[in-house]
Amino acid sequence: MDESRHLQSDSSEAQLDMIIPSCEDGVFQKRGQKTRILTPEEEEKLASDQILVSDFKQQKLEKEAQKNWDLFYKRNSTNFFKDRHWTTREFEELKACRKFADQKLTILEAGCGVGNCLFPLLEDDDNIFAYACDFSPRAVEYVKQNPLYDAQRCKVFQCDLTRDDLLENVPPESVDVVMLIFVLSAIHPEKMHLVLRNIYKILKPGKCVLFRDYGLYDHAMLRFKPANKLGENFYVRQDGTRSFFFTEDFLAELFLSVGYEQVVNEYVLRETVNKKEGLCVPRVFLQSKFQKPQREM
Ligand SMILES: C[S@@+](CC[C@H](N)C(=O)[O-])C[C@H]1O[C@@H](n2cnc3c(N)ncnc32)[C@H](O)[C@@H]1O
């Protein structure tokens, strides 16, 4: 989400050997890693940041979560997030779960924002029907106004994933792939299981949730100033939107507790390098796939 740079690289020589260049210039990516190793300065910074935002303010942030995201889209319109063309590249399952090449797939993008994931997917693949939802009315409106929006291929609706039943808009067990891209991190950790339960009902047995979100010790986590901490690995930005940073174990427990099975759950470590300025930004994401169990025969 935020791509600012800093001067430190966390990579030792040994780790650098394992870095695999990705398709984008100046970005290096490695998968299947353990948690990023912090520098002593970073460790000290996190250890000293122990004071939590007051309960009163935390409750206000929870109450105003929808309003704060809606204001975010009012300020940024459709210009903030880059189109996420890596979705099809990274999540090959979107294609691989087909039994034959032009089989129609039904997907749900939960927390779609203004459609930065959705539209590249629909453009890349004619055989997709997409449901998409977000709790920001403005974001939903931007999706509807996009020239690529086609009601034959897409249905977008407003929905608070923690509260509104997805069954009001999506038939039970009708979806092949659910995408949760940088959405769960915006939701209070105590309510994340409600989102996963909601999704479970519309997912076909044997089909998957594809997840990508912030991982523990991502650069964005290290940049929070004191007084922005809400809880363990949970922070609030200046604009009132919140961000959680996931560990593999936390995510696995969350999905398994709702009844999903783990297929893949791994950190993706990236370094965005600006050679000219000698800057390097360590990013950590968690990229995962959890399946609704097949029905017993
Ligand atoms: C970081 S943005 C990601 C948007 C989009 N998935 C993308 O990758 O560009 C997080 C989105 O989650 C939405 N969101 C947060 N909490 C939600 C909730 N409880 N129900 C539905 N959407 C929510 C926000 O409105 C926002 O659009």
TrEMBL record:
Top-level enzyme category: transferase
Record-level Gene Ontology MF annotations: tRNA (cytidine-3-)-methyltransferase activity
An annotated GO BP: tRNA methylation
CDD domains: AdoMet_MTases
Coiled coil: none
Domain spans labelled Methyltransferase type: 108-206
Keywords per UniProt: Methyltransferase, S-adenosyl-L-methionine, Transferase, tRNA processing
Keyword Methyltransferase: yes
EC id: 2.1.1.-
GO cellular component terms, semicolon-separated: cytoplasm; nucleus
Highest taxon listed in the record's lineage: Eukaryota
Stated role: S-adenosyl-L-methionine-dependent methyltransferase.
Family statement drawn from the similarity comment of this UniProt entry: Belongs to the methyltransferase superfamily. METL family.
PANTHER family, sorted: METHYLTRANSFERASE-RELATED (PTHR22809), TRNA N(3)-METHYLCYTIDINE METHYLTRANSFERASE METTL6 (PTHR22809:SF5)
Protein name: tRNA N(3)-cytidine methyltransferase
Species assigned in the record: Pogona vitticeps
Lineage, broadest ranks: Eukaryota, Metazoa, Chordata, Craniata, Vertebrata
Protein's gene: METTL6
